[in-house]
Design a protein that fits this description.
- This protein has one domain: NAD(P)-binding Rossmann-like Domain (Rossmann fold).
- The protein has a seven-stranded parallel beta sheet, sandwiched between helices.
- With 270 residues, it is α/β, with parallel strands linked by helices.
- It is globular and about 50 Å long.
Length: 270
């Protein structure tokens, strides 16, 4: 039996990169999964691959009604909800504040925060009642940018830092009925897109020239992550058997970013 046998989860942003890896791993571990994303074609492909283990909803996480539809569809298909995974996000292509035109700043801020922060809050709000019934959990995808500068531009890093406070406050407000935790991946080989119109040079994350090599050289473990490298943390945090007393916690999955070095180190003596 898998770690999540008999459980039901809902994953937002579940059709690419880390999101789809979480969905596949949850199904492997015995869960049935609701999947919400914007791209209907990718959702259909996921249904073809995973069959009746998933139910999909095309929607926008920044809209309350779409989040509610995703929760309702999951409950209708599977009868309950044990875990809500907030995962949908957009990048800002490392865009600095002084590179954003003053007339564009307010709109860019609102669009990115509507997805990366408001989207998590809306999903959480829609899932609360169902999770209280099962005494379930919430898990949110953060980033090493939630703790350190340089992993994105001003909007992305600010949004990810805000989510640390969101997790702690939700864990405080929803205890003891619902556990709230997060996973903070580092650089990952994923086609994550940047906010439209913010930076004319932007490309999907894993198409940035030199991205894989630079990410590998930046951390002590010496390699870029694949989306699947992070999924065990999401399984552990959703597990009732093995993390029942874990809340307000964020697991770092970033190759040791905090202890990164500036370059090759001299041989150690003795």
């Amino acid at each position: 039996m898998g770690w999540l046998e008999g459980q039901v989860a809902l994953v937002t942003g579940g059709t690419g990169g880390i999101g789809s890896a979480i969905v596949r791993r949850y199904v492997e571990e015995g869960a049935r999964v609701g999947v919400m994303a914007r791209d209907a074609a990718q959702l259909r492909r996921l249904e073809d691959e995973l069959g009746d283990a998933v139910v999909t909803v095309a929607g926008d996480v920044s809209r309350y009604q779409d989040n509610q539809r995703a929760v309702s569809a999951t409950l209708e298909a599977f009868g309950k909800l044990d875990t809500f995974v907030g995962n949908a996000a957009v990048f800002d292509y490392f865009t600095r504040l002084d590179r954003i035109a003053p007339e564009d700043l307010e709109g860019a801020f609102q669009r990115l925060f509507a997805i990366n922060v408001q989207g998590y809050l809306l999903g959480a709000r829609c899932a609360i009642d169902a999770l209280r019934e099962t005494r379930g959990s919430m898990i949110f995808t953060l980033s090493n940018s939630a703790f350190y500068a340089g992993g994105g531009g001003i909007l992305y890093v600010t949004a990810k830092h805000a989510l640390v406070g969101m997790i702690r406050q939700l864990a405080y407000e929803l205890a003891p009925d619902i556990r709230v935790n997060g996973v903070a991946p580092g650089a990952t080989d994923t086609p994550m897109k940047s906010l439209e119109g913010l930076n004319p040079r932007s490309v999907p994350l894993n198409r940035i020239p030199g991205f894989e090599q630079g990410a590998a050289q930046a951390v002590p473990l010496g390699r870029i992550a694949a989306p699947e490298d992070h999924t065990g943390h999401y399984v552990l945090l959703a597990s009732r058997r093995d993390s029942g007393l874990t809340t307000a916690n964020i697991i770092h999955s970033d190759g040791g970013w905090e202890i990164r070095s500036a370059g090759p180190q001299p041989p150690r003596k003795g």
